Amino acid sequence: MNKQNKQQVVTEMHEKLSKAKAVFLADFRGMSVEKATTLRNDLRNAEVEYKVVKNTLLELASADTDAAALAPHLKGPTAVAMTYSDPVAAAKVLAKYAKDQQAAFKLKAGVLSGKVISVAEIQALSELPSREVLIAKMLGSMNAPATNFVGVLAAVPGSFVRALNAIRLQKEAN
């Protein structure tokens, strides 16, 4: 790779790292091509960009971004996973592969909202419900008081009607 190509890679990576909501680093040593392809496909489905970049180029590209804090973890073969939307979805896929491929795929660290997160924190992030589930739970919680209020309002006339019906039945029986 000549100097011009390296500069182009650094520029492209800098733009991507600047836009990313979360960045994760992993060591992929010993991973088979089949497993790596499956991982790439699963990450693509989760809207995560996965690249293998030389550590020196990644360090240069991460300057002036949140990912600059990951510099101490840039040792050995490094793969970078960047997500621009849902960090939980990315963490789920990466944690699953780290668990399944213990020897071949290991998470190193990550950056989420400008804060460096450890492998344990990435694992905890992966155990969170997805964004859609959290939104559904929140909407259910917001909807519950209104539903209960409507139920109470409907119960009052219903009780009144049942009381009138009981009085009518009592008078008919006499």
Q: What distance lies between the first and last C-alpha atoms, to the nearest angstrom?
A: 103 Å
Question: Any idea what the CATH architecture of the largest domain is?
Answer: 2-Layer Sandwich
Question: How many separate domains make up the residues?
Answer: 2
User: Strand arrangement, largest sheet?
Assistant: 2-3-1-4-5
CATH class (first level) name of the largest domain: Alpha Beta
Topology summary:
Blueprint: H1 3-19, E1 22-27, H2 33-45, E2 48-52, H3 55-61, E3 79-83, H4 87-100, E4 106-112, E5 115-117, H5 119-126, H6 131-173
Antiparallel strand pairs: 1-3, 1-4, 2-3, 4-5
Helix pairs in contact: 1-3, 4-5
Description:
- The longest helix is centred in the last third of the chain and has 43 residues, at 131-173.
- Strands 2-3-1-4-5 form a 5-stranded antiparallel beta sheet.
- It contains 6 helices and 5 strands.
- Helix 1 (3-19) crosses helix 3 (55-61).
- It folds into 2 domains: 3-128, 2-Layer Sandwich (Alpha-Beta Plaits); 130-174.
- The chain has helices at 3-19, 33-45, 55-61, 87-100, 119-126, 131-173; strands at residues 22-27, 48-52, 79-83, 106-112, 115-117.
- 59% of the residues lie in helices and 15% in strands.
